[in-house]
């Protein structure tokens, strides 16, 4: 309901009306649990027509008539979208005290038994007053000052202070930085429509500068990757597991078995120490998921390609040095290429494993480097980024034979998906128009003969509406 009703995002609807934030083009939300177990969601939302921070800054600093009109339109939109003060009690309502229940525990005050007539607007304003006061008003606690050192002045780590106010929204003409209006320094930013519908605490922020984007991304990535288990608790659990294994296993000659048991008990000890709230359990049982996205993503294991390129460069340097040292050498280019191919097995990049049906053994079948290098002549002009984005490796299926041909020897021969319900296999180089083709029957392409799965798999072009967003996987940031 949040995505369709409030954000107005529905990929199946063309030229929709949009939502409370305008026309949303994409979103990404990650569900997390607080220390108390309550669930909340960090969500990034992209709005159609928005400018990146550099474009926004350049447009603001232009300082001409068009720039001033743009600044005023943007300020009007943000002032209407983001509120940071307690909604006042409507003057037309009768004096009444704060209700004895939390506003979030009821659907709204519009369904009350009030006999005041058709004053729906007044009751909505009154409901918004109690909601914003109960859900958005900040109260300082000990956690606000947990990073303050002894002797230093107390400062809220959330930067909430009654003095943090800004009477009007404005742009800094020298830096292009936007200062949003803030009428109450103790109230979190919120959108009235979302607050009225969701009836819970929220925080909304406009990302209009590079510094804001970096700060938000750092906060989200740092927050969602933190371990739910304290370091000292984890080490204590591991120590108890080691002591248990040493006390119960008297088999020093069987080190392999003892090592397996040690790993099992260490894993069990860590799992037992983790606290899971009832909300997390119910979300898992209801299969609600831990993230919400408008698009699908595909991993690009860049490290494997980088190592492959480095091997080629190193081999070329060696060949050049060898040719200069021995000009009479007649080693062919094919031999050098074969030598490079032989070293591919040394790559420690992402390798796909499959389970052999007959023996049950795990065997390596392919990796992304091999899939791209041996993609076949029909896909030679497709770059690596587009191959991850729009090409899908699918397994060949057996043809559905007629009843009178059920005993035919051809039953064991794999037939491409293209021969059943897809477009025909292509041997000609694919063009950009083929990647943008929106027909239901998708073309497929065979791998070159050097590929390990040439007889069992093909590459299928995804529909333009189902393209993936490549995510480069690189070494971790120190």
From TrEMBL:
Q: Where is the composition biased (Polar residues)?
A: 105-120
InterPro entries to which the protein is assigned, alphabetical: Helitron_helicase-like (IPR025476)
Q: Where does the chain cross the membrane?
A: none
Top-level taxon of the source organism: Eukaryota
Stated name of the protein: Helitron helicase-like domain-containing protein
Which species is the source of this protein?
Dendrothele bispora (strain CBS 962.96)
Q: Locate the region Disordered.
A: 88-121, 318-358, 399-429
Q: Where is the composition biased (Acidic residues)?
A: 330-350, 404-428
Q: Where is the composition biased (Low complexity)?
A: 88-99
Outline the extent of the Helitron helicase-like domain.
17-45
């Amino acid at each position: 309901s949040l995505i369709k009703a409030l954000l107005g995002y529905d990929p199946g609807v063309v030229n929709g009306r949009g939502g409370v934030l305008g026309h949303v083009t994409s979103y990404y939300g990650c569900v997390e649990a607080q220390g108390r177990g309550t669930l909340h969601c960090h969500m990034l939302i992209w709005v159609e027509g928005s400018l990146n921070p550099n474009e926004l800054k350049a447009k603001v600093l232009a300082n001409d008539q068009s720039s001033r009109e743009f600044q005023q339109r943007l300020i009007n939109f943000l002032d209407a979208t983001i509120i940071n003060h307690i909604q006042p009690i409507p003057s037309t309502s009768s004096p009444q005290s704060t209700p004895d229940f939390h506003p979030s525990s009821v659907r709204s005050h519009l369904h009350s038994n009030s006999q005041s007539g058709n004053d729906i607007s007044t009751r909505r304003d009154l409901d918004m007053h109690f909601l914003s006061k109960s859900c958005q008003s900040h109260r300082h606690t000990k956690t606000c000052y947990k990073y303050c050192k002894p002797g230093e002045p107390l400062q809220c780590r959330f930067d909430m202070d009654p003095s943090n106010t800004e009477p009007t929204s404005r742009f800094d003409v020298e830096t292009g930085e936007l200062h949003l209006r803030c009428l109450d320094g103790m109230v979190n930013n919120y959108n009235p429509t979302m607050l009225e519908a969701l009836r819970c605490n929220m925080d909304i922020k406009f990302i209009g500068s590079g510094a804001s984007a970096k700060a938000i991304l750092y906060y989200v990535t740092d927050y969602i990757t933190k371990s739910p288990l304290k370091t000292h608790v984890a080490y204590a659990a591991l120590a108890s597991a080691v002591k248990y294994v040493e006390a119960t296993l008297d088999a020093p000659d069987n080190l392999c078995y003892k090592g397996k048991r040690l790993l099992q008990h260490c894993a069990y000890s860590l799992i037992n120490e983790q606290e899971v709230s009832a909300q997390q359990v119910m979300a898992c049982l209801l299969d609600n998921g831990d993230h919400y996205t408008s698009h699908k993503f595909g991993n690009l294991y860049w490290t494997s390609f980088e190592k492959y390129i480095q091997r080629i460069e190193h081999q070329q340097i060696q060949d050049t040095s060898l040719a200069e040292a021995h000009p009479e050498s007649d080693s062919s280019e094919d031999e050098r290429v074969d030598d490079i191919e032989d070293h591919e097995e040394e790559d420690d990049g992402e390798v796909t494993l499959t389970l052999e049906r007959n023996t049950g053994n795990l065997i390596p079948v392919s990796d992304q480097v091999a899939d791209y290098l041996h993609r076949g002549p029909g896909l030679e002009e497709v770059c690596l980024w587009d191959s991850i984005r729009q090409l899908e490796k699918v397994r060949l299926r057996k043809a559905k034979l007629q009843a009178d041909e059920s005993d035919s020897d051809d039953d064991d021969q794999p037939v491409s998906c293209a021969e059943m319900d897809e477009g025909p296999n292509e041997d000609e180089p694919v063009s950009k128009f083929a990647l943008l083709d929106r027909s239901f029957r998708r073309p497929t392409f065979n791998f070159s003969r050097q590929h390990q799965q040439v007889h069992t798999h093909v590459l299928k072009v995804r529909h333009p509406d189902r393209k993936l967003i490549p995510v480069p996987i690189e070494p971790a940031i120190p």
